[in-house]
Amino acid sequence: MAISANRPPNSLLFSDHCHFLRLLSNPTRRNYLNLHSGGFPNPHPLSSHDSQHFSALSPASAPASADPDAGIRRLCVRGDLEGALELLDSAEGRRLDDDAYVALLRLCEWKRAVDEGFRVYSHISSSSSITSLSTRLGNALLSMFVRFGDLLSAWSVFGKMVERDVFSWNVMIGGYAKSGFLDEALDLYHRMLWSGARPDLYTFPCVLRSCGGITDLIRGREVHVHVIRFGFSSEVDVLNALITMYAKCGYCATARNVFDGMPRRDCISWNAMIAGYFENENCAEGLELFLTMRNLSLEPDVMTMTSVISASGLLPDREFGKEIHGYAIRMNFLTDVSVHNSLIQMYTSLGDLEEAEKIFLRQESKDVVSWTAMISGYEKNGSPDKALEVFEQMGANNVVPDEVTFASVLSSCASLGRLDIGTKVHVLARNIGITPCTMVGNALLDMYSKSRCIDKALEVFRQMPEKDVVTWSSVISGLRINRRSFEALSFLRQMHVDVKPNSITFIAALSACAGVGALMCGKEIHAQALRSGLGYEGCLPNALLDLYVKCGRMEYAWTQFNILKEKDIVSWNIMLTGYAGKGRGDFAVSLFNQMIEASVHPDEVTMVGLLCACSRSGMVSQGWDYFDSMKRKYSITPNLKHYACMVDLLGRAGYLEQAYQFINEMPIEPDAAIWGALLNGCRIHHQVELGEYAAKHVFELDDRSVGYYVLLCNLYADSGRWDQLARVRKVMRERGLEMDPGCSWVEVKGVVHAFLSSDASHPQIQEIYAVLKGLYDRIKAAGFTLPEDQSIAGMEASKSDIFCGHSERLAVAFGLINTTPGMPIWVTKNLYMCQNCHSILKLISKIVRREITVRDTEQFHHFKDGSCSCRDEGYWGGSIKLGRYDSGHWLCIYDAFGPINDLSRAYASASHRLLSISNAIADRGVRPQQSASPDGMTYRSGYDGRRWRDSR
């Protein structure tokens, strides 16, 4: 027996005797029984037979009887529970007959008087009746406890019953099923069969609904056999339940066979089959069956119309939905509020918010579903601001929101970044008492995560009484987007204990692995997804591709990319972004050309990746060409991200004045990111005055992002302006802004290890410090000069490196200790790597003869034999580096692949904007200067008259 006594049963409303079970077995008939208001088919707690039996005692003028049994029965018939209980108390110690107890129990159940019901149960327990409960008294107790939602007490009574009839089993099975314990309900059904009890007409619908609820086709088919064996294969209610069960399990063909074989069908049969098709996204078959129903002159009911209208919202043909709307008007269905609600949902699903608004405004009677349909419609169609307006109107109309309302409103707050409103909504949900609902908890978790309040999100997570797969997926994704991927992986391990992950979970987990460079861990997660049958589902292949790219394994990524059966635009964009991060603009351009040849149309993200690749590789002319071709050739209107890429392209190349001019000529208002790109260019080329001007605009638009303060601090530090730097840091402290501590991750033998700046908590920290000291000594002994004197104990950073933290050195040392000699070491860092660490790691790679790769927030640095893949230029000075601007002279212009021999040829394909850049540079009076190029050659470059000239 698999019934868990420790699981808290949910609130349960259960009706009297078999009439309720019949209604419960047919979801389409629940409108006859108001479960939430406690309505009953028979408004009196006693049946008509019982009322007639006690009619002689019912007149109010009858004298008080000395018999407490008769008096209690009389008072119960009159509905006087208080008087009946007083009479019961006066008979303390005396056993009443079963009729009196049953009358009391049924009255308590009818009035939902929980405390009074337990008083009656206590009286029964104090007598000898509890040790030998009769079937009738036991059934009354079972019905009452199940109605109260107290399955533990019901189970206790069930075990004390001397004999159980089919009603006893039906009550228990229905109680567990209604409380959501579907497996336990099915176990009870099998125990019922083992006891020799014969199921009846009311047993099978409840059991079949339990099978459908957990999509257990095997047990559902077994119950189908029992239906035939016990002779109920012609009962309409049972066959309707069979149709629903097969549809819930995804077997519409079998459900249709049952439907076609029915000797007679009612409207519920048609509704069950039509709804089954719609639930399995077989809209065409469902609508065809609806038309067949109409051709047979069968009138649909409200449930039929709501199903058909809802399904019409899933069809690409909007005209059909309008035809159904017209049919509903002609058949006078619009008097029902549920039909109105379905129409609102249909039009919002079709994206026709204007028509949905008309229906909503014309609707005289609006319930919570009406308001929620409008709110969720706005939220899903990209109008979260209007969703919040409707929510405010909902409150003004004194309509209490439900869990679906709160979920949609919180999602709107997350989309708008309105943490203030989201917090107020959270308080409202708590006051209503709806926060324990899993759906609301998931929405709160998502809202706080996207609002960068991950600690508050974790608090919500810990307080949730029940967590489903969406909950776990949300917390893993939330930690990832808040740059706490290391914690996200620990939550993934905890999740496996209770919940089976789905494809969304695997995608979030792979993204977390990519965040800390945990390649082996990501491969394990992908293997688990394959074992679960989800490895090739949805976005998982692209998530694996993204993992390889962000871990710097472009060769693995290229292999994965080539084996993809279907390469969508996301696949191409991931690869483009990967080559951009590697500084391989040439590969990115080649891949983009392949993409065009494959007839894949680029989108906005594609162009961002392509422009970033050009920026990182110093491909100024190509970047201009692609920017110019966006609207002309690919019908893509540049947005703020594209303009930011262009400012970054110019800024890295040293064209700061031209970048500033570009910003002023933008057709749209620049945002903080665009001014931040200019500030970064000023940092690279030490242009303090223009950098301060850019910072002023940045902080006017966004004064909460720490990264911009860091850029300004680095600008001051690189220029030796320590007083200004101190003032910026003081402002940061006053505004409560804190820089994330430097953290680096290294994966060794499938386990990810994290190292914070000046970390002393790692069990191998002393060994790590000893290894670093030994490496520094070996570097000095080899004749190399360290960038600065290194403090092993504290890893103190110089003023120019205050935001680095040097945690990557700890991670590299740990990797050297715990990996086989000669094995590459891969480190991921959450901050920029300072120039001193860059120089140190180059020397370490030469001394230990290891390949070391560090991914920081800017790019990949692949150290090998004392050199870095960025060539010491692409990171701090831009891929096109102007050696120095001194007294009006530009010295040595060269790119990442060698000196530029002829700027006029290099930029021949540039747009008119690039020509204006050249003219602007000429206006500054650039004079030729001799300088040594990276390859040791000396050449002269400059401007003569109106033509670039260059000679060796």
From TrEMBL:
<feature type="region of interest" description="Disordered">
    <location>
        <begin position="926"/>
        <end position="952"/>
    </location>
</feature>
<dbReference type="InterPro" id="IPR046848">
    <property type="entry name" value="E_motif"/>
</dbReference>
<keyword id="KW-0809">Transit peptide</keyword>
<dbReference type="InterPro" id="IPR046960">
    <property type="entry name" value="PPR_At4g14850-like_plant"/>
</dbReference>
<feature type="repeat" description="PPR">
    <location>
        <begin position="437"/>
        <end position="471"/>
    </location>
</feature>
<keyword id="KW-0150">Chloroplast</keyword>
<feature type="region of interest" description="Disordered">
    <location>
        <begin position="47"/>
        <end position="67"/>
    </location>
</feature>
<feature type="repeat" description="PPR">
    <location>
        <begin position="367"/>
        <end position="401"/>
    </location>
</feature>
<dbReference type="GO" id="GO:0009451">
    <property type="term" value="P:RNA modification"/>
</dbReference>
<dbReference type="InterPro" id="IPR032867">
    <property type="entry name" value="DYW_dom"/>
</dbReference>
<dbReference type="InterPro" id="IPR002885">
    <property type="entry name" value="PPR_rpt"/>
</dbReference>
<dbReference type="GO" id="GO:0008270">
    <property type="term" value="F:zinc ion binding"/>
</dbReference>
<dbReference type="Pfam" id="PF20430">
    <property type="entry name" value="Eplus_motif"/>
</dbReference>
<feature type="domain" description="DYW">
    <location>
        <begin position="796"/>
        <end position="872"/>
    </location>
</feature>
<dbReference type="Pfam" id="PF20431">
    <property type="entry name" value="E_motif"/>
</dbReference>
<feature type="repeat" description="PPR">
    <location>
        <begin position="568"/>
        <end position="602"/>
    </location>
</feature>
<dbReference type="Pfam" id="PF13041">
    <property type="entry name" value="PPR_2"/>
</dbReference>
<feature type="repeat" description="PPR">
    <location>
        <begin position="266"/>
        <end position="300"/>
    </location>
</feature>
<dbReference type="InterPro" id="IPR046849">
    <property type="entry name" value="E2_motif"/>
</dbReference>
<dbReference type="Pfam" id="PF14432">
    <property type="entry name" value="DYW_deaminase"/>
</dbReference>
<feature type="repeat" description="PPR">
    <location>
        <begin position="165"/>
        <end position="199"/>
    </location>
</feature>
<keyword id="KW-0934">Plastid</keyword>
<keyword id="KW-0677">Repeat</keyword>
<dbReference type="InterPro" id="IPR011990">
    <property type="entry name" value="TPR-like_helical_dom_sf"/>
</dbReference>
<feature type="compositionally biased region" description="Low complexity">
    <location>
        <begin position="55"/>
        <end position="67"/>
    </location>
</feature>
<protein>
    <recommendedName>
        <fullName>DYW domain-containing protein</fullName>
    </recommendedName>
</protein>
<feature type="compositionally biased region" description="Basic and acidic residues">
    <location>
        <begin position="943"/>
        <end position="952"/>
    </location>
</feature>
<dbReference type="GO" id="GO:0003723">
    <property type="term" value="F:RNA binding"/>
</dbReference>
<feature type="repeat" description="PPR">
    <location>
        <begin position="336"/>
        <end position="366"/>
    </location>
</feature>
<dbReference type="Pfam" id="PF01535">
    <property type="entry name" value="PPR"/>
</dbReference>
<feature type="repeat" description="PPR">
    <location>
        <begin position="402"/>
        <end position="436"/>
    </location>
</feature>
<dbReference type="GO" id="GO:0009507">
    <property type="term" value="C:chloroplast"/>
</dbReference>
